[in-house]
Design a protein that fits this description.
The protein has 493 residues and is mainly alpha-helical. The chain is built from 22 helices and five strands. The radius of gyration is 23 Å and the shape is globular. The chain starts with 11 loop residues before the first helix and ends with a helix. The structure holds zinc ion.
């Protein structure tokens, strides 16, 4: 009999067991998120889910999977790290749900402060709301975030990586290449943002970019004057018709569950919970109406259709894991229809279509510049030994990019983890390039063509087996490039 060495690579059987466990673990987490955020369950009991899958999150499991398919290895490492700070995640969720503050005699829950700010026409009041929010963030949440980051920083060493940034490069994240492309986009669109951002602030809020403050930004994008162009009662029908044009009958999809019920504690924002992929995908909406709400619904519908069309016989790494720029890309493709001139002409009876498209392009410019700066920041953040020093770097790097003052207090809570920021950045490039391809092949109203639907369904069926770069190359022959986003924005302006 021969004894197995402790870190021998897993057998095919062990790998399959790990896949099954991973699939159920994510299913249970998604179900928990769904129940909590759809307002059907008061608490978010993520910790209990972690407890049920203890084996999955052990250090030995992560170490053993080092030579396994990268996505499984990454999942094991993220499970190990996530498990170490699961108590922090629970405390943060609890604090966010319970904290409240009083502004001008009115008591407002922490989670509603940004919404209140976006709906507040009075600048001084917005300032007071933001100051109250930042006090709560800094006093109650930042100490928990900081502790969690420090735990992660130590734990990464146990995964044999010098830091989190190096760990993600080992997972195949092209962080430096994407960052270099982002820096080019930032340089290339700097003047454009100064000019167009200034115009947008002036037209909507009557102030220049140089006068804008953090509490003005949420108000800028809230744009209540656009609400009447995007009415509540037409939102779901517009989605249904758009999908019908692509050959999809939303209500006939047995694996798609529309949750339209109004519940007091339901999340005001649409979301998608792929509890089983492709078997049970929840699309949760509390229709409020307005441009933001329409964009959120179409975005989440993009995720929903992607997961609902994914082939069930693919391994879990292709159904649930993989390159998140793929599912975000499908979401962006749907989301951006809401400001697409040809789509607006077909689906909504609105005047000033070109103006809406231009607004859409300037908003995209803001978000691309913000996320490009976030990536540069996170690359520094995850290499530093001195985390508190990053507080000022955060405000510096994002301020340079957006040309307005940034709250240093957000230096921790503005990090999504797992370098998800590159998923969004690359999804914008994927969307820009795929849209360009669809328009050249099928015309500006590609979204109303059955051929487009056939192609999308075929691509959706692949799940996230191929990366966004691979999908794009296979379909269009082109390389995924951040510069395409700048081009798309210029065209819209
Ligand atoms: Zn998304």
């Amino acid at each position: 009999m021969s004894a197995e060495p402790p870190n021998s690579s897993p057998t095919p059987r062990e790998l399959d067991q790990f896949r099954d466990q991973a699939d159920s673990f994510i299913r249970d987490l998604d179900e928990e998120y769904y129940l909590h955020f759809s307002g059907q369950k008061e608490t978010l009991d993520v910790e209990q889910v972690y407890e049920r899958y203890e084996e999955l999150t052990k250090l030995e499991t992560a170490q053993k999977l080092t030579g396994a398919p990268t996505e499984l290895w990454r999942f094991a490492c993220e499970g190990f790290l996530g498990n170490l700070t699961r108590e922090h995640q629970a405390r943060l969720a609890q604090a966010e749900a319970e904290l409240e503050t009083t502004v001008d005699g009115e008591t407002i829950p922490y989670r509603m402060l940004r919404v209140a700010m976006s709906n507040e026409p009075d600048r001084d009041k917005r300032k007071r709301l933001e100051e109250a929010r930042l006090r709560l963030l800094d006093e109650h949440l930042n100490p928990i975030y900081l502790d969690a980051v420090q735990i992660d920083q130590e734990a990464v060493h146990q995964l044999d990586a010098p830091n989190y940034y190096e760990l993600y490069k080992r997972f195949g994240f092209r962080l430096d290449e994407v960052a270099a492309e982002c820096q080019e986009v930032l340089d290339d669109t700097e003047r454009l943002w100064e000019r167009e951002g200034d115009k947008l602030f002036r037209s909507r809020l009557g102030i220049g970019l140089d006068e804008a403050r953090p509490w003005d930004v949420v108000r800028l994008f809230r744009a209540p004057e656009l609400d009447k162009l995007y009415p509540n009662d037409q939102m779901l029908p517009a989605l249904e018709h758009t999908l019908t044009d692509l050959g999809i009958d939303l209500h006939a999809q047995e694996n798609v569950h529309l949750d339209l019920d109004a519940r007091p504690s339901k999340s005001p924002r649409a979301f998608c919970a792929p509890i089983e992929v492709p078997g049970k995908v929840m699309l949760v909406i509390q229709p409020i109406g307005g441009k933001d709400d329409w964009e959120a619904l179409f975005h989440e519908a993009g995720h929903t259709e992607h997961y609902a069309h994914t082939r069930g016989d693919l391994p879990v790494e292709a159904r649930r894991l993989g390159d998140m720029a793929v599912t975000e890309g499908w979401a962006m493709l749907m989301q951006h229809l809401v400001t697409e001139p040809a789509w607006l002409n077909r689906r909504l009876d609105v005047p000033r279509v070109e103006e809406l498209a231009r607004d859409g392009a300037v908003s995209l410019l803001y978000f691309v510049r913000r996320y490009a700066a976030k990536l540069l920041y996170e690359i520094e953040f995850f290499q530093t030994e001195d985390i508190p020093s990053m507080r000022n770097r955060y405000a510096e790097i994002l301020g340079d990019s957006l040309k307005l003052p940034i709250n240093p207090e957000s230096y921790l809570d503005d990090i999504d983890g797992s370098f998800y920021v590159t998923g969004y950045l690359r999804s914008w490039a994927f969307e820009a390039q795929l849209r360009e391809f669809l328009r050249s092949e099928l015309g500006n109203d590609w979204f109303a063509k059955r051929d487009a639907g056939d192609l999308l369904r075929e691509l959706w069926s692949l799940g996230q087996g191929p990366t966004a770069d691979e999908l794009l190359r296979d379909v269009t022959g082109a390389k995924l490039e951040m510069a395409s986003v700048a081009e798309r924005i210029r065209e819209g302006i």
